[in-house]
Structure formats: C-alpha cells, structure tokens
Amino acid sequence: MKEINFKSLIITFVVGIAIWFIPVPEGVKPNAWHLLAIFVATIVGIISKAASMGTMAIIGITLCAATQVLAPGDPVKSIQNALSGFGNSTIWLIGLAFFIARGFIKTGLGTRIAYSFIKVLGKSPLGLAYGLNTADLILAPAIPSNTARAGGVIYPIMKSIAVNMGSVPEKPETHRKIGAFLTLSSYNANMITSVMFLTATASNPMAQKFAKDLGVTITWGSWAIAALVPGLVCFILVPLFLYKVFPPELKETKEAPAIAAKQLKEMGPITVKEWLMVATFIILLVLWIFGNLFAIDATTGALIGLCILLLCGVLNWEDVKAEKGAWDTIVWFSSLVMMGSFLNSLGFIGWFGHLVGGQMAHLSWQLAFPVIILVYSYCHYMFASATAQVAAMYSVFLAVGIAVGVPGTMLAIFLGACASLMGSLTHYGHGPAPIFFGSTYVDLKDWWKQGFFMSVLFLLVWFLVGGLWWKVIGLW
C-alpha cells in the first residue's frame, strides 16, 4: 500500500468522473468522450503520483474494458481492444531494446566505453564533459531507457571522477569545483542524446506511433537524419555554454585520465562477450538504418539482435525475465498508446485539432509553428516525464499543426524532441533528473535557472539550425 497516494488517487477519480458526466460536445461520439475521461484521469494519476505508472496503466486498461468505451455493447471486442496495445510492434521495439541494453551493462562494455573516452579527453573539465557525453551518445541508439543509460553507466563514473577531483557531496563548498559543472553537463547531454535516435528514449517511439495515426510516417533513419544536425550542434554547445555561465573552479583535471586508465586496467582486456556485444550493436544499427532495403522493420531488427545475444550466451533467459524496466515499460506503454490511438480512431483528436486549429486559421503556418512548439515545450513544467507529456498532448498539438498547414514530418519530429529536451527545465522533468539532482552538487535554484537557459538554447538551435537543415533535406 506504500505506493498508493490515496489523496491523489481520489483527486484522479474525481477528475475522471467530472469529465465523464460533462455533456458531450457536438461532433464528438459519447464513447470517445468517455474514453477521454479515462485517459485524462490516467494521466492525472501518473503526474500526481497517485500510484506507480504501471498501476495507473492497468487501472486504465481495466476501466476501458469494463465500461466498454472501445466497443459499446460488445464485451469481448471491448477487452480485445483494451489489450490491443500489447500487440503494437513499436511497444515491443522498446521492450526488446531494453533487453539488448542489458548486454552493455552486463558485459561492462558501456563502462569501458565511458572510461576510454575519459582517458583520451579528460585532461580538462571540458574534456571530461565531452568524454562522458560522447560515451552517452554512442550508447544512446541501443539503450532506450535514458534513465538506465544515465544511472547505470554515466552517473556513477561522473560522480567518481568528481569526488576524486575534490568535489565531495557532503561538502557544499566543494560542489562548484567540478561536480556541479559535470552534473549539469551530463544531464543535459543525456536530454540531447535522447532525441537524436528513435530508440534512445521511450517517448520517441510513442510519438512515432501517434504521428503514424495522423498520417505521418517516421522511420528510424528519417528521425536520425532530421535530428542529426541540431542534435550535434546542441551536443557541442552545452558544455561550452555551461563552462561560460556556470564554470567549474578547476581548470585542469590531469588526474582524470590516470583514474580512467586504472579502472580500465582493473577491467582487464576486452572480453569475447564484449566483442560479441559490439558486433551485435553494429548489426542492429545496420538493420535499423537500412532495414527498408531488406524489408526488415525496426522491431524485427531488434528481435534478431536479441536472438544473437541469447544464442551467443551474452544474455540468458534469466536476464530477459529479470529486466523489470522492460516489462514495466511494455505495460504502461501499451495502455497509453492504446488509449491515445483510440482517441484518434474514434475521432476525438481530429475534432479537437480542427476546433483549436480554427482559432489559429488566421495565422500562416510559419507563425503557427513556433507558437505550437513554444506552448507545447513550456507545458513541460507540469510533467515529470517525456512519456506523460507525449501521451497527454502530442497528438492534439500535432493535429492542430497539420490542420493549419505546418509540414507534418517536421512538426512531428520537433514535438517528439521537445518532450525530452524540455526535461532540462526542472529537477523532476525526466527520468534521469532525480538521479543527477540527488548528487546534491546543484541546488534547486541553480538547476531551474540553468535549466531555463538551456531550454532557450535548445529551442534556438532547433528552430534556426534545425530549420535550415530541414529545408536542405526537404521537410518543408
């Protein structure tokens, strides 16, 4: 019972019941409106932490089946529709990628990669930052949980280096030595790497699925190409920007490469299983990037990768069963995608998009585009994860943009990116935030202040550099 917040749970049900009994607007099907009530209540429960995300997802699925909002008068079809999310290939892509990511952690390959970059680049705070961030970038395509990537690989190494450089969590006067700088650099770099690949964080495939429901098709390759240039520019600028506005007291970290070299020596030579992990990773990237040439979609590619790891002994079935994050994601992802998809197929998203779009009809798409992005982006203050924001708002904002003429693929990818990029705003804005904030190196005021500055930097780069790049590749 400890995971249940009864006060928040009561508020959640009150919100759902209130929406359910509001008179159904003209042009909306009654069951679509009632599904909205369940969906909004589920999102409110997730945001307010009334219960775990998985618990709220199961409650949402159960209510959809019990009330028959997905197939009025047909209980069998209703339960089939309520469970339909579990048959979605996008959801299994993320689940499979979690399993594959376990190989990086189990073999130690992820840690070896991070220490290798620190050994080469770590003679200065900027070099340390780029070393840690580059390791994150390399791991991002194959580790879909940026929380696991940050918490399982990057954060422990970052903190160890900071402590060895004299930044001790228990001594606030030492935080600005280097710990605070590395904390904000590593966290914000994680937000950037999370949007550069479709498989880098769970909210991206959810955005892909909702975009497809609205007629916008995005592949692994098209997402990576669109995000490549603005992503790399942000990746380069973040440490430089922080070094200017939030500089570390230390200007040299000559000891860091020696620390990394010692850790690598203790790890020993690269093992056969690590080489197998590298080979599998390369195969996965080839299948994800060029899968269309072989008639292999991204989920099939992930299945092939997992089979290779299981057959080679890099992973065993116990590893797959024990990967709680994957099974948890599959459950709540299935619930939210199912409800979001049916809100669209039952006509609610289209109705609401045209309703709001009508209010913006006097605007050209060039003016409507930044308005949509800015409103969507700064609504992230209300959310504790990119997934919750995408589930609650993505389809509506994309539908509004399409209704006023914004090029669909450009808007779909930008909105998908904003949900993660805006994790920079708060100490709860994305899964890795509590991990890095919990180091105590950065106080709340500085986190929010630098987070806002970072959000402005991200949006400027994506509007200006991204806009020019998307023109070159024909997205508008």
What does this protein structure show overall?
This protein is 72% helix and 0% strand. It is mainly alpha-helical. Among the domains are: 1-87 and 330-346, no CATH class; 89-212 and 220-324, no CATH class. Helix 3 (53-67) packs parallel to helix 16 (324-345), helix 10 (203-213) packs parallel to helix 16 and helix 10 (203-213) packs parallel to helix 19.
Mean pLDDT, to the nearest integer, reads: 88
From the spread of the alpha carbons, the general shape counts as globular
- The proportion of residues in beta strands is under 5%
Tell me the number of strands. 0
Percent range of helical residues: over 70%
Give helix and strand order, one letter per element, not per position: HHHHHHHHHHHHHHHHHHHHHH
Low-pLDDT runs of 5+ residues are none
- The rounded distance between the terminal residues' Cα atoms is 52 Å
Would you tell me the structural class of the helices and strands? mainly alpha
Rg, please? 23 Å
Sheet with most strands:
none
Number of continuous helical runs = 22
